[in-house]
Amino acid sequence: MPEYNGNDVDAQFLYNAITYKHSQSPDAVSDDSQNILPSEYILYSNFPNPFNATTHIRFYLPIRSSVVLSIYDMKGRLIEDIIRQNMPPGNHVTRWNANEYPSGEYFIKFKANTYEQIHKCLLLK
Questions:
Q1: Across the 125 residues of the chain, what is the mean pLDDT of every consecutive 10-residue run?
Q2: Residue 37, burial from CB neighbour count under 10 angstroms (0-12, 13-18, 19+)
Q3: In this predicted structure, what is the pLDDT of residue 34?
Q4: Distance separating alpha carbons of residues 76 and 72, to the nearest angstrom
Q5: CB neighbours (10 Å) of residue 111?
Q6: Which domains, from first to last, does the chain contain?
């Protein structure tokens, strides 16, 4: 597959997603008879990070799940819920537009059924 050499962040993200989907990794191994997918929930690091205004958040659901994806500030205050819905299994990507928030560290909290995970992200303006 050819390499991406442009500067557009959205195009770079899509290129990375396509490259990831078509490459073999420890998370997604394939053979001639079946596809083996992750059996656990995964919150990937947001991209880009640090970011200016918008970042993409990717996660994997092994089963249909009730998902809440929230952003918190450094003081633990809820900034906003990005997702709050039932979602089908598989890979999912969403975008957080932080244009109205000041520079600083924020926490992305991913909750799916009883699973929870938190990642830190850095907004730079």
A1: 50 50 42 60 95 96 96 96 96 96 97 96 94
A2: middle
A3: 52
A4: 6
A5: 19
A6: 38-123 (2.60.40.2550)
